[in-house]
Design brief:
Layout: H1 2-14, H2 18-21, E1 52-55, E2 58-61, H3 70-74, H4 87-102, E3 115-117, E4 123-125, H5 126-129, E5 154-156, H6 164-169, E6 174-182, E7 194-204, H7 206-209, H8 235-257, E8 262-270, E9 273-283, E10 286-296, H9 298-303, E11 310-317, H10 318-326
Parallel strand pairs: 3-6
Antiparallel strand pairs: 1-2, 4-5, 6-7, 7-11, 8-9, 9-10, 10-11
Helix pairs in contact: 4-8, 4-10
Length: 336
């Protein structure tokens, strides 16, 4: 692997492409990929015979679910997404700049509408990571083989969505939350067990969703769920939220890829949003999946104490965007 890195360094430096070459300047050790694709340190113990494990200065009791490894622990909170000029930090800043420039609170101060959070610690509870997002108890995404469990009640977050409920409960109606996430994945050029996501959430009151209406339409009702709206939402409210979401994200990809970028919306299923979509862009002669999004499940908002609001959410991978925008050929190079 070291010869591969050396070749890439020389190739990129010869092109004088400093933005792409800088990801090589720190050298970390890697596990060789023998006999095909393997999980990073998958079979190594969690260290010693202690009945406790320490993560970010806090001790947790081990149990039958504990499977986090010393090597993963050593990279917890590496903060690549907040380390300038790392490519992940550059992409994060570009996204934040788009929201800062285009969305401001009303009034004379015109302060940014979206609060940016990027230092939320990655240890979460099972309830935060799964239950708060309405993920079924028997869903495969909860499995020990897919997550890094500290014990039966705590794990390293598998997605930034794990913080939705707590952030909404704190009183924020519009926020961008980015951070490192952890999944037991096979290592190859586009997969690594630690990567980075950004979560975006926007909530609306009736007057915010229908600002020009003298008598705003009802946002909530009781009906059967359809492909267009949830059972607790009116069709008018769901359509208005979906329209705002799509316009917002089309503006974001135009900001990142250029004003002439072609976009494609594809219906999708996520447990925590409905209706849900994936946004694809046509870039360098191919369609690329950029993000997933949708109208937030009302039960999530009700449980977070925002039963009078309706909202949208999206999630994207910073590595995916950085690799495309900066021409980085291998996800492992972010750690080199």
């Amino acid at each position: 692997f070291s010869s591969f890195v050396s070749h890439q360094v020389l190739r990129l430096l010869c092109r004088e492409n400093l933005c792409r070459a800088m990801v090589f300047f720190r050298v970390l050790s890697w596990v060789p990929r023998c006999n095909g694709r393997h999980l990073l340190y998958r079979n190594m113990s969690t260290g010693g015979s202690s009945d406790h494990i320490e993560v970010l200065g806090k001790k947790y009791a081990k149990d039958e679910m504990t499977n986090i490894t010393p090597q993963i622990l050593s990279r917890v909170n590496s903060a690549l997404h907040t380390t300038s000029p790392h490519p992940l930090c550059l992409v994060k800043h570009r996204i934040e700049q788009y929201f800062d420039h285009n969305f401001r609170k009303p009034g004379a101060s015109r302060t940014p509408l979206f609060t940016c959070l990027d230092k939320v610690e990655p240890v979460v509870t099972v309830e935060q990571n799964f239950d708060s997002l309405l993920i079924p108890a028997d869903h495969v995404s909860r499995s020990r083989s897919d997550n890094y469990y500290i014990n039966a009640t705590h794990l390293l977050r598998a997605h930034t969505s794990a913080h939705q409920q707590n952030t909404i409960q704190s009183g924020l109606d519009a926020f961008l939350l980015s951070g490192d996430v952890y999944r037991r994945d096979e290592i190859d050029s586009s997969h690594y067990p630690i990567f980075h996501q950004m979560e975006g959430v926007r909530l609306f009151s009736s007057s915010q969703l229908f600002p020009k209406a003298v008598n705003p339409p009802e946002m909530f009702g009781k009906s059967c769920e359809t492909p267009e709206h949830q059972a607790l939402h009116t069709s008018a409210a769901s359509a208005a939220v979906g329209k705002h979401l799509k316009e917002t994200l089309e503006g974001l990809v135009a900001h990142l890829f250029g004003p002439d970028i072609k976009t494609e919306w594809v219906s999708e299923f996520f447990p925590f949003t409905h209706p849900s979509w994936e946004l694809n862009v046509f870039y360098k002669d191919q369609w690329l999946e950029v993000l997933g999004c949708g109208v937030m499940r009302q039960d999530i908002l009700n449980n977070a104490g925002a039963s009078d609001k309706i909202g949208w959410a999206f999630g994207l991978g910073l590595e995916r965007l950085a690799m495309v925008l900066y021409g980085i050929p291998d996800i492992r190079l972010f750690w080199s």
